[in-house]
Specification:
38% of the residues lie in helices and 22% in strands. Strands 4-3-2-5-6-1-7-8-9 form a 9-stranded mixed β-sheet, sandwiched between helices. The protein is α/β, with parallel strands linked by helices. It has 7 helices and 9 strands; from the N terminus they run E-H-E-H-E-E-H-E-H-H-E-H-E-E-E-H. The longest helix has 17 residues. The model has no long low-confidence stretch (mean pLDDT 94). Strand 2, helix 2 and strand 3 form a beta-alpha-beta unit.
């Protein structure tokens, strides 16, 4: 059980890591803040995961029974209720994926997001599960990024040159800069060895 934050500029592969790594897990809850549940499900090609959509506004009904569309992402309580409803029904360990914290920061102060994240991370820990979160680097004030990163025992930074830096790791590493494939294996190792 561990939490990993993948931080990097747009287009540096954060979502690709989430997609590839989530395939290693049977029980996945995916929270999307930057695209629709339809788009996520189409990319993942999986019907067995839960998708909580805070991107699609309104009372739109989902075609998939495991898609929960939050009608008003301006109401963080509604987002929390949707997540807790899904987690209440989970059996066994799970991987919670949030792409991206930045999507919630559009609507909420970072102090509210910090409270929301802390409560969510505590619940995931109590249930002996793991999580992967993304954050768009330099889209927020530096103090916001630093405050959010303090909650995570593992921080991975994707870069525009294709390299990946491990900023913080719960597993011992002999270096801190990797190519994409090496980084993916390290993220998997963080999730397995911290269990």
């Amino acid at each position: 059980m561990t939490h990993i934050l993948i931080n990097g500029p747009p287009g540096t592969g954060k979502c690709k890591y989430l997609e590839d790594i989530s395939r290693e897990f049977d029980n996945v809850v995916w929270i999307t803040t930057l695209s629709s549940a339809y788009f996520v499900r189409k990319r993942l090609k999986r019907e067995d995961i839960w998708i909580i959509d805070t991107y699609t506004w309104g009372k739109k009904e989902s075609e998939e029974s495991r898609d929960i569309i939050v009608s008003n992402p301006l109401n963080l309580n509604e987002v929390s209720l949707a997540i807790n409803k899904v987690l209440d029904g989970m059996e066994g360990n799970y991987l919670l994926v949030m792409n991206s914290i930045s999507g919630l920061l559009i609507y909420h102060t970072y102090q509210r997001i910090l409270h929301f994240l802390r409560a969510l991370l505590v619940r995931i820990e109590k249930e002996n599960s793991s999580s992967l979160f993304t954050l768009v680097k330099d889209a927020h004030e530096k103090t916001v990024e630093v405050s959010i990163s303090m909650y995570f025992p593992n921080i991975v930074e994707t870069r525009e040159d294709g390299k990946v830096r491990i900023i913080k790791s719960s597993v011992p590493l002999d270096k801190n800069e990797f190519n994409a494939e090496e980084a993916k294996e390290i993220i998997k190792r963080m999730l397995k060895e911290s269990s």
